[in-house]
């Protein structure tokens, strides 16, 4: 909660991300058409939609990797460029992209070392790299090299590394997409723990309806051709969410509703 309060700016809750009439074009092709949306600070949004509807493009737009063709995007009231330079957000991809010759701990320390070597003042998490590895359930594996870790463990290292500069917004693009179902379910629980302990805002792209329902306070459904906002569905299920929740009628009801929406996209 303390972490969420840090997102309060001079007594006003500034949105973590704000898009106003944002369009993205690749040449003549419209990838995102006129999206307006506000993501509340501290929220957990899952993002669902058919293949090619612009989910990754939306994250890349928010993270200053691609500019809008028109419209505005701001992160905690700053331009995306200013937010990037201030390390306000971090990205976690489907592939953990760890340096193979560095241990788990050394990979997590890397963003701090890069900041120091460039003489840049960067925010640092209240938790040490060791504590972050513990937070993601990797206590005891700090000195393992990436090839000695499972895919799920490598993804956890990537999450710890993303948290080391104390981002206020975490952008996750199918981070567990390549993992088996059991591992994914376990990492879902672990991620919710990270979210609850750090207060970080999360935008989480997934192809899995159960994963979207299990994690998100809201599910942002996009439509394809061109990519645009279809609907935002509130997931009114209590936290902390437990494995048993997946077997409840409520959970099934949300999943069925989203499946119908997805089929209509
Ligand atoms: N750099 C690019 N140049 C041209 N077209 C692009 C580029 N990046 C993405 N696109 C197109 O934009 C559309 C949206 O792509 P995006 O990767 O955002 O979709 P997605 O919803 O994440 O897809 P998936 O679910 O399959 O991962 C697609 O039609 C894609 O081909």
Automatic annotation (TrEMBL):
Molecular function GO labels: ATP binding; ATP hydrolysis activity
Keyword Transport appears in the UniProt entry: yes
Residues of the ABC transporter domain: 17-245
CDD domains: ABC_NrtD_SsuB_transporters (cd03293)
Enzyme Commission identifier(s): 3.6.3.-
Superkingdom in the source lineage: Bacteria
Top EC group: hydrolase
Secretion signal span: none
UniProt KW keywords: ATP-binding, Hydrolase, Nucleotide-binding, Transport
PANTHER family attached to this UniProt entry: ALIPHATIC SULFONATES IMPORT ATP-BINDING PROTEIN SSUB (PTHR42788:SF13), TAURINE IMPORT ATP-BINDING PROTEIN-RELATED (PTHR42788)
Family: Belongs to the ABC transporter superfamily.
Protein name: Aliphatic sulfonates import ATP-binding protein SsuB
Gene from which this protein is expressed: ssuB_3
């Amino acid at each position: 909660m303390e972490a969420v309060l840090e997102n309060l700016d001079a007594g006003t809750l500034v949105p973590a991300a704000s898009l106003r009439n944002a369009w993205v074009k690749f040449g003549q092709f419209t990838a995102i058409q006129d999206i307006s949306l506000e993501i509340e600070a501290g929220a957990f949004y899952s993002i669902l939609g058919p293949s090619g509807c612009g989910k990754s493009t939306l994250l890349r737009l928010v993270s200053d990797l691609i500019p809008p063709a028109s419209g505005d995007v701001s992160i905690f009231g700053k331009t995306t460029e200013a937010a990037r330079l201030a390390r306000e957000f971090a990205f976690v991809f489907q592939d953990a992209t760890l340096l193979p010759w560095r241990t788990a701990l050394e990979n997590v320390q890397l963003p701090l070392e890069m900041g120091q070597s460039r003489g840049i003042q960067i925010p640092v998490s209240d938790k040490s790299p060791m504590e972050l590895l513990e937070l993601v359930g990797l206590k005891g594996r700090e000195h393992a090299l990436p090839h000695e870790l499972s895919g799920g463990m490598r993804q956890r290292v990537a999450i710890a590394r993303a948290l080391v500069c104390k981002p206020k917004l975490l952008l996750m693009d199918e981070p567990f997409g390549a993992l088996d179902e059991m591992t994914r379910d376990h990492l879902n629980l672990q991620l919710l723990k990270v979210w609850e302990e750090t207060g970080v805002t999360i935008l989480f792209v997934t192809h899995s309806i159960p994963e979207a329902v299990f994690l998100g306070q809201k599910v942002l459904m996009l439509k394809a051709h061109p990519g645009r906002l279809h609907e935002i569905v509130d997931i009114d299920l209590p936290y902390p969410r437990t494995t048993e929740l997946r077997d409840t009628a409520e959970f099934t009801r949300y999943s069925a509703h989203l499946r119908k929406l997805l089929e209509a996209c």
